[in-house]
Every structure is written in structure tokens, then in C-alpha cells.
């Protein structure tokens, strides 16, 4: 009987030690890995969260940018870190939903190697066209595409980017034939849409909102489930094509196995931070919105996004690189 009792006491001791560790959290510097370059929306709000956590907890929370391989390098670093809450990642639709279906030899499994903490934000999207294109609504765009098969072209920031996948989803749901014109980044793609070399782009709001307001581009629709505060009179694509929804989302993740107490505490802090008036104002400026979730609802969302984009990529015939 001694051995079972010894094992039982050891297990109990380990559980108490884990609980004590979680209750003492944080007791040292926390690293938030942003697997992208400095200056993007993931970096911007990763730093907002880090600053607010530092102020609240009195422990340094620092951001480290580890870009490369579509975000896989930084995300993989976190996947292989100790599950103690001291190394976190700001992932996005690419690193935690799309990349496995676009890239060969993925170094991690987005669903198995992480525990979702919080859905930080959705970057609002906008479908804009060159003003010379004789359409002002999604219905008119679809009618024009069906009357002129193969004559419409849409630009994107590159193969497998959200702007590319949104275009492929629109093609499949609308039944029109469009030519994809990939660029090395969103800026040259947007420039060529304004110049008429391509006719439209499914872009993030901040990258095209000023051009749309000035008339250099025409805003046709937003990409998410609901209308955007920045352009409340612009309808969603889903109002014409029910079920269309493209969210360029960002979330916080920890390595799988991170104690639930730490996950819950981080979730509560993200909720508090993203609801702060100054952060809400910053979100609106950036053309983004906070999406409140529990860890469970964010995990369900991530799983649904993975299934959705796996199907869309397969249907579009996009090959892994």
C-alpha cells in the first residue's frame, strides 16, 4: 500500500505546486512573441497589451518580433516553449488557421500545440474597385462578372494572403470568373488597382480607407459579418452573398499545457485592456474591432476557421509551397 499512497501524495504535491505557481503568476518577465515585422497591427496591439500588463502587474512584459515563414518561425518558438505563461504569441489567421494548408513541412500544429487565450481583434476589410469599373454594389459586380467572364481581375498582397483567400471565396460563392494578380505586398497591389492594372482588391481597412474617401478607389462592401463603424453606410458582402465572412483576425495563444488558472487570468486581462476607452479609440483609428471571447469560444472559432479555409483552399486549387 505504501507505493500507491506515495504516488498519490506525490501527485497531490505536484498539483498543489502547480496551483501555487499559477497563483504567484507572474513572478518574472513575460515575453510576447509577435511573429511579424514591427509596425503591423499585430505588433501594434501586442505592444498595447504588453504595456498595459506591465502597468497592472508590476512585472516587465516585453514584445519580441520574430518574423519569417509567414509567421511560422515565431509561432513555432512559442509552441516549443515551457507551458508556464511566460512565453506567449500574438498569432493570426495565417499562423493559427491557414498556413498548414498552404505550406509544406509545418513545424507545429496550430490546434494541438497551443491553448487559445483570447481573440484580440478583427482587422476590418473592405472590397474596393477602380472607379472606372461600372459597378457600385456587390450585386452589380456579380452581374458584370457574369456578363464579362474572365475580364475581371483582383489584386492581392501575395499567394495565400487574406486578400487572396477572400478573392477566391468570393469567386466560389458568387460563381463569377476572376483573374488573380498576386503582388509582393499590399502597397503595390493597391497602387495598381488605383492605376487600373487590376480592377479590385479585398484589403484591410486602414490600407485603403483614405483612398476610398478621396475617390481614388470606390468602396463596394466590407468583408466581415457586420458593417464597420468607419464606413457605416457601406454594406457587407454577406448582405448580398449570405455566409460570406472574412475576418483578418488576431489572437493571443500560449503553449499547450499552460495551467488553466493562467489562461483565465490572461483572458480576463485582455478583455479589460481591449475595452479601455483609449484602446477602443485606437482600434477605431486602425480600422479594427475587439471581439470578446472566452478561451473556449476562441478555441471553437479557431477550429472553425481552420476547417473553413482548408475547404476554400482545396476548392480554389491553391498548391502548398
UniProtKB/TrEMBL annotation:
<keyword id="KW-0732">Signal</keyword>
<feature type="signal peptide">
    <location>
        <begin position="1"/>
        <end position="22"/>
    </location>
</feature>
<comment type="similarity">
    <text>Belongs to the UPF0065 (bug) family.</text>
</comment>
<dbReference type="InterPro" id="IPR005064">
    <property type="entry name" value="BUG"/>
</dbReference>
<dbReference type="Pfam" id="PF03401">
    <property type="entry name" value="TctC"/>
</dbReference>
<dbReference type="InterPro" id="IPR042100">
    <property type="entry name" value="Bug_dom1"/>
</dbReference>
<protein>
    <recommendedName>
        <fullName>Tripartite-type tricarboxylate transporter receptor subunit TctC</fullName>
    </recommendedName>
</protein>
Amino acid at each position: 500500500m505504501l507505493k500507491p499512497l506515495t504516488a498519490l501524495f506525490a501527485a497531490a504535491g505536484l498539483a498543489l505546486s502547480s496551483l501555487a505557481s499559477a497563483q504567484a503568476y507572474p513572478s518574472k518577465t513575460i515575453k510576447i512573441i509577435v511573429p511579424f515585422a514591427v509596425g503591423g497591427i499585430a505588433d501594434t496591439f501586442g505592444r498595447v497589451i504588453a504595456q498595459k500588463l506591465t502597468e497592472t502587474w508590476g512585472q516587465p512584459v516585453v514584445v519580441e518580433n520574430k518574423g519569417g515563414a509567414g509567421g511560422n518561425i515565431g509561432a513555432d518558438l512559442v509552441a516549443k516553449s515551457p507551458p508556464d505563461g511566460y512565453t506567449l504569441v500574438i498569432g493570426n489567421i495565417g499562423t493559427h488557421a491557414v498556413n498548414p494548408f498552404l505550406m509544406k513541412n509545418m513545424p507545429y500544429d496550430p490546434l494541438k500545440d497551443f491553448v487559445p487565450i483570447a481573440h484580440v481583434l478583427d482587422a476590418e476589410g473592405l472590397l474596393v474597385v477602380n472607379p472606372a469599373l461600372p459597378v457600385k454594389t456587390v450585386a452589380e459586380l456579380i452581374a458584370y462578372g457574369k456578363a464579362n467572364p474572365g475580364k475581371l481581375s483582383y489584386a492581392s498582397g501575395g499567394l495565400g494572403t487574406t486578400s487572396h483567400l477572400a478573392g477566391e471565396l468570393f469567386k466560389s460563392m458568387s460563381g463569377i470568373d476572376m483573374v488573380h494578380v498576386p503582388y509582393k505586398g499590399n502597397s503595390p497591389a493597391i497602387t495598381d488597382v488605383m492605376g487600373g492594372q487590376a480592377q479590385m482588391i479585398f484589403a484591410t481597412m486602414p490600407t485603403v480607407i483614405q483612398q476610398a474617401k478621396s475617390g481614388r478607389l470606390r468602396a463596394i462592401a466590407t468583408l466581415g459579418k457586420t458593417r464597420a463603424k468607419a464606413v457605416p453606410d457601406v454594406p457587407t458582402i454577406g448582405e448580398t452573398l449570405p455566409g460570406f465572412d472574412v475576418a483578418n483576425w488576431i489572437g493571443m495563444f500560449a503553449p499547450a499545457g499552460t495551467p488553466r488558472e493562467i489562461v483565465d487570468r490572461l483572458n480576463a486581462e485582455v478583455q479589460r485592456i481591449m475595452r479601455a476607452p483609449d484602446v477602443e479609440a485606437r482600434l477605431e483609428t486602425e480600422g479594427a474591432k475587439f471581439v470578446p471571447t472566452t478561451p473556449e469560444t476562441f478555441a471553437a472559432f479557431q477550429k472553425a476557421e481552420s476547417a473553413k479555409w482548408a475547404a476554400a483552399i482545396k476548392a480554389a486549387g491553391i498548391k502548398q509551397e
